[in-house]
Amino acid sequence: MRKQQWIYEIFAYLLALLFLFTAASKLFDLRHFVREINNQPFDDRFTPALVYGLPAIELIAVALLVWPKMRLKGFYLSAVLMFVFTVYVALVTFHFYNRVPCACATAFKHLSWPEHLAMNVVFLTLSITGIILHHKEHHIKIKQPYPIRAMV
């Protein structure tokens, strides 16, 4: 296995572990998660969609990332999720909202908002890099499907 393929695999499993951990932490303490979602600067009407939708989408991302034939879709879903999470955390970090909500709804409650932002940027970068590596590998395979042999 080539180095790029190893990196691709490692990034997929790191993202899958992240989403599995965050989804599980939400689902195992659902009451706490509901309270913390209600503490965020969103209209409470969005609570049911967020409480059930976020863990479900995160678990879908896990399945896509660990299933080799669906991995590219998993990287795309991861990139979208991480982009949305990163924008939200950036808005909180830079005091866009009137109040800064507690970060206790997250699986990483020990992180400050700036640390959370940095972590999100790292995982967003892993997602985008996974997409790039997939396309690079796919392009190479299409371009040269068989080894070229010199004719003697």
From TrEMBL:
UniProt keyword annotation of ATP-binding present: no
Keywords: Membrane, Transmembrane, Transmembrane helix
Transmembrane segments: 49-67, 74-97, 117-134
One biological process term in Gene Ontology: methylamine metabolic process
Transmembrane helix keyword on record: yes
Localization of this protein: Membrane
Name listed for the protein in its UniProt record: Methylamine utilisation protein MauE domain-containing protein
InterPro entries hit by this protein: Methylamine_util_MauE
Superkingdom: Bacteria
A Pfam family matched in the record: MauE
GO CC terms of this entry: membrane
Topology within the bilayer: Multi-pass membrane protein
Every Methylamine utilisation protein MauE domain range: 5-132
Organism, scientific name: Mucilaginibacter paludis DSM 18603
